[in-house]
Amino acid sequence: MAEWRAKAEAQGWSLRETVIALGPQRGHVGTPSGLADKFTRFVRHSAIDGFNVTPYLIPDGLDDIVDLLVPELQERGIYRTEYTGSTLRGNLGLRAPLTHRSAPDRRQAGKAPESALVHMTDKKLSHADRNAGSADARSE
User: Fold this and answer.
1) Whole-model pTM?
2) Staple partner for 42: which of 30, 47, 103, 134, CB 3.0–4.6 Å?
3) Which string of DSSP letters, residue by residue, matches the chain?
4) What residues contact 68, with CB distance under 8 A and at least 6 apart?
5) How many CB atoms lie within 10 A of CB 39?
């Protein structure tokens, strides 16, 4: 800590500048334009195919990413300006799920017999209604 203090005083750094200069250097540090240039090289050489960006300082750093870095990346054509799909699944390029068929589709495909559909409807009845229905069915 004493080393940091001495260096900060010698350089005239603020606390923020000291942490940025001397803190652990994980990731990329630079101006929005410089970072965009670096990321563009990575994309053009197929070294990356997406971005997981975390600001160094929260919450202010997030505003810097959104307001300064993203527009630079968009200008270079390596960050989308709009989404093409209307759902997350569509934006990720995934096919529609196979499990969300309507009841008539399941009957046609032989997946759900009529009795299953009647049984599902029966579950909506109260316990007393089901018992009364069972007694009526037995008496017939």
Assistant:
1) 0.48
2) 47
3) -HHHHHHHHHHT--HHHHHHHHS---S--S-HHHHHHHHHHHHHTTS-S------SSTTHHHHHIIIIIHHHHHHTTSS-SS-SSSSHHHHTTPPPPSS---HHHHHHTTSS-HHHHHHHHHTTS-HHHHHHHHHHHHH-
4) 32
5) 21
Task: Report pLDDT digits (tens) over 106-124.
Answer: 556 555 555 444 444 444 4
Structure tokens at 76: 């270079």
C-alpha 23: how far from chain center: 29
Structure token pair of residue 125: 């009845």
Cα-trace Rg, the chain = 30
